[in-house]
Amino acid sequence: MTTYKCIIIDDDRFAIEWLEKYISFVPNLRLVKSYTDPMEALIDLSNGEMIDLILLDIEMPVVSGIELSREIRGRTKKLVFSTAYKEYGYQAFEVNADAYLLKPYTLSKFAGTIEKLFSKENENKSTIKNSDDFFFVKDKYEDLRLVKIKFQEIIAAESKQNYVLIHTLSKKVLTYMSLTEISKILNEKKNFVQFQRSFIIGKDHIESIDGNTIKMVNELRISVGDYYRKDFTSFLSEKLIKAGRKS
Q: Are residues 150 and 216 in the same domain?
């Protein structure tokens, strides 16, 4: 059985203890750490490894859960808001939250939500037939027909809420999965990089770079995100040919 690592971020110690008890009843969840300070969580997540699940409160001092989620969304496979406030549903949708649990919720509600999230992930994995050169995904534009995608033809993968839009040299394919999920497939290849939260791009299909804007061969333009600026600078340093000085 696959075990999923999770963390809790909530300024209410009682709420954390209550949620920790729920987690103890779910066999495939392993609690890594609980945080009452959202800024401490941000620092640890920025410097640590990818987490399978973050359970995040919304109303917190200094920084709200919505604000924090924008910074940490790329560090977790699944993000679930655990809150007593129902009015933040739309903001949660905007930051690509996977679920919205309204306190107080039952153990069965919690366990059912977690099971649904990760069973969906496993289903996505099973529909992707990976090989050295290509894979298959279900295309929403083609009534969920399985469509063959060649790695060498992928220009970019773009996050579209619960979907990913795959830009290729010949077509666009819309498939039901997160950008995090498809990144696991693309990261097995050395030809893909991420310089923006919503895009993974194929290095071979970069046409030009103007400042912090990357233009792809299909006219797609991508702005480099602040979080990825260091990686982008390293990429340019590695690939830029500089003329030598004249003596």
A: yes
Same domain, 227 and 121: no
Residue 145 forms beta bridges with which residues?
Answer: 139
Same-domain pairing of 75 and 181 = no
Q: Show Cβ contacts of residue 147 under 8 Å, excluding neighbours closer than 6 positions.
A: 136, 137, 138, 139, 173
pLDDT digits (tens, 9 = 90+) for 23-72: 998 888 999 999 999 999 999 988 888 899 999 999 998 889 999 998 88
pTM of the model: 0.52
Cα–Cα dist 190/134, whole Å: 14
- For 221, the 3-state DSSP assignment is strand
Judge whether 246 lies within some domain.
no
Q: Are residues 12 and 98 in the same domain?
A: yes
168 or 124: which leads in pLDDT: 168
Question: Which H/E stretch holds residue 138?
Answer: strand 134-139
What is the β-pairing status of strands 172-175 and 163-168? antiparallel
**209: which residues sit within 8 A by CB, 6+ positions away?**
215, 236
Total of domains in the chain: 2
For the record, the structure tokens of 24 come out as 């103890």
Residue entry with tokens 């469509």: 147
Token digits for 210? Answer: 């103007």
What is the residue range of 119's domain? Answer: 4-126
Q: So what's the pLDDT on residue 67?
A: 92
Q: What does the block give as tokens for 1?
A: 């059985």
